[in-house]
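User: Here's a protein and a ligand (adenosine-5'-diphosphate). What would the complex look like?
Assistant: Let me lay out the input and then the predicted complex.
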Amino acid sequence: DDVINKIAAGEVIERPAAVVKELLENSLDAGAGKIEVEFRHGGKSYIRIEDNGCGMSPDEAMLALERHATSKLQTPDDLLKIVSMGFRGEALPSVASISRFTLKTRAEDREQGSEILVNGGKLIHHRDCGMAPGTRIEVANLFSSVPARRKFLKTDNTEAAHIVHLVRLYAVARPEVDFTLVEDGKVVFRSPRSSDLKHRVAEIWGGKMAEPLEFFPEITSKGMKAWGLLGRPGTGRSTRREMITLVNSRPIDSRTLSYALIEGYHTYIPKGRYPLAFLFLEIDPAAVDVNVHPAKREVRFRDEGQVRRFILEGVHKRLSELAAGEFGFVDE
Ligand code: ADP
Ligand code: MG
């Protein structure tokens, strides 16, 4: 059973960034207004995620570590309307089966927190502890008991880059949450909650990234809403990495959205360059299919054509306004 658990966990958890993703989604699900992420050695030796969300009672904490105990899926139909981010109920037990895992959590209405230590899937202790309301999870020696998986990990720098990119995506996706990211003892970024998206991007990525960005004011059609930031006409990036798309406050990949952006930029971007864009889309969750493969964040839309036209036309219109000078003046 232990071996089966480890194999299953190795399939769900591809690399340290996948652990960070699961824990971040849990913190957001818990309503956290403040999240701190720290990691060392590309996440291989140490990952810590701390939030001020709703926390768990001692019983809930134990339950959370039992595989599938918390699955929110009742019927196959539920897959089609996943609103909350977590839905498989197996992230925590999977991670705990392949690391030295410490969970400290306190629900708001409790005097005490509880601390659970699990090593390689084995419960070491469960005791009361003092702490502020919220949850703190530490994951040490990830994959040390799964040599087959450890062998496939890339260098610390590469694994670190995956984590940094991921946390940046979640931080920009949820500007109302205070985010801090620390790598090997150094602050990568710190961004208090903020309503100014461009300012948020500057805090998370640095001023250079934000400089060519213009506001893309909200557009709406048929229950869809989109807004964000667009790189000024004539500017572009050498990779697709900075075409950042967020659906219902969650970073996702969608060929439809990427191509709509690229097409929207047609004639407004130099050859061989990709748009720099932060595109937010709000859409009825029932119109979105979330790929059930845990490692992917690709989504499909019920009506891909409708979404594509909505974004393509909105982006193109905004870029033509910007190119003409917003108020009828032409920039010299
Ligand atoms: P899922 O998110 O799919 O339910 P997880 O294994 O990721 O499964 O988490 C199990 C459960 O533990 C969650 O459903 C939630 O009730 C609880 N939980 C996990 N992380 C947190 C957190 N940071 N704050 C509060 N509750 C949490
Ligand atoms: Mg989860």
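Summary: DSSP finds ten helices and 15 strands in the chain.
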